[in-house]
Amino acid sequence: MSDYNADSQLDCSGLNCPLPVLKTKKAMDDLASGQVLKMVSTDPGSLNDIAAWVKRTGNELLESIAEDGHFTFYLKKS
């Protein structure tokens, strides 16, 4: 369990690349600087995709958790 309080949540379960990243970008666009998004995905490719996306955008990956085929990301808007 994470200690982060998410300001918004996004469930991308069942979606394949590139949809989890595209939906994450859209959700992050709606947040204010410093707010946290919790995104859940079942696409194993999202581990690399989200890591690359945060490097490119300057947003912060606070934590990623892989458990039982579900990948949970806590992302902080820059």
Topology readout:
Elements: E1 8-12, H1 19-29, E2 36-41, H2 46-57, E3 60-67, E4 70-76
Parallel strand pairs: 1-2
Antiparallel strand pairs: 2-4, 3-4
Task: Kindly describe this structure.
This protein has 78 residues and is an alpha+beta fold. The protein starts with 7 loop residues before the first strand and ends with a strand. The protein contains two helices and four strands, in the order E-H-E-H-E-E. The protein has helices spanning 19-29, 46-57, and strands at residues 8-12, 36-41, 60-67, 70-76. The chain has a single domain, classed as Translation Initiation Factor IF3 (2-Layer Sandwich). It has a four-stranded mixed beta sheet with strand order 1-2-4-3, covered by helices on one side. The longest helix has 12 residues, at 46-57. The mean pLDDT is 96.
**Radius of gyration, taken over Cα atoms and rounded to an integer in Å:** 11 Å
The overall pLDDT average reads 96
Helix amount: 25-40%
How many domains, as an integer? 1
Low-confidence stretches: none
SS-derived structural category:
alpha+beta
Number of helices: 2
Strand order of the largest sheet: 1-2-4-3
Strand content: 25-35%
Q: How far apart lie the N and C ends?
A: 23 Å
Order of helices and strands: EHEHEE
CATH classification, class level = Alpha Beta
Q: Main β-sheet: number of strands, strand sense, barrel status?
A: 4 strands, mixed
CATH architecture: 2-Layer Sandwich
